[in-house]
Amino acid sequence: MKDPEAVARDLCLRALTGTPKTRQQLADLLADRGVPEDAAETVLDRLGEVGLIDDEAFAEAWASSRQSGRGLARRALKAELRAKGVDDEVAATAVLAVGDDDERETARRLVERKLPSMRRLDRATATRRLMGMLARKGYGGGLAAGVIREALDADGADDAPVAGFDDLDEDALLP
């Protein structure tokens, strides 16, 4: 490698052409390509100075996009950001933009979208499947239970109690 900084700069600029990346993602790319660590740090520092790498802006955009597009809860958003190499504090700050009301409304929309396919099922089975869907998206048990109970009641699902479910206290189970 004649000029490792030039190689690192080219690799980073090519990687940033498609989608924004975190500093850690670019550092991993450079390490995988055998770029010496000192050259990688120099290039990454410079890209940060000129604003091409901004983990805070990345985290905010990611959280907003994934919450509205995939319906992920704050817990899942934080986990995804950490997996992408975003600092815990930056991730926590980014997901603060998703408020309690936003999270509840998103969970409600997810359940309403899934509810028509649950109408043929008994209430216990529908509840279990809806709880699983919301849990996979990072929603806590209390919030999920409340949203599902409201949706099933509004939809006129049979009123047979679901063991353990109707006794959940929504506020006690929030993360």
Account of the 3D structure:
This protein has 175 residues and is mainly alpha-helical. The chain folds into 3 domains: 4-49; 55-95; 100-155. It has helices at residues 4-18, 23-32, 37-49, 55-70, 74-83, 88-95, 100-114, 123-136, 141-155. Helix 1 packs across helix 3 (37-49) and helix 5 (74-83) runs antiparallel to helix 6. The protein starts with a helix and ends in a 20-residue tail after the last helix. The model has no long low-confidence stretch (mean pLDDT 87).
The percent range for helix content is 55-70%
Biggest sheet details? none
Number of strands: 0
- What coarse outline follows from CA principal-axis ratios? elongated
Cα end-to-end separation: 50 Å
Task: Summarize model confidence as the mean pLDDT.
Answer: 87
Helix run count: 9
Could you spell the SSE succession in H and E letters?
Answer: HHHHHHHHH
- Determine the structural class based on helices, strands and strand pairing: mainly alpha
Strand content: under 5%
Domain RecX first three-helical: 8-47
Domain RecX third three-helical: 102-144
Organism: Blastococcus aggregatus
Subcellular location: Cytoplasm
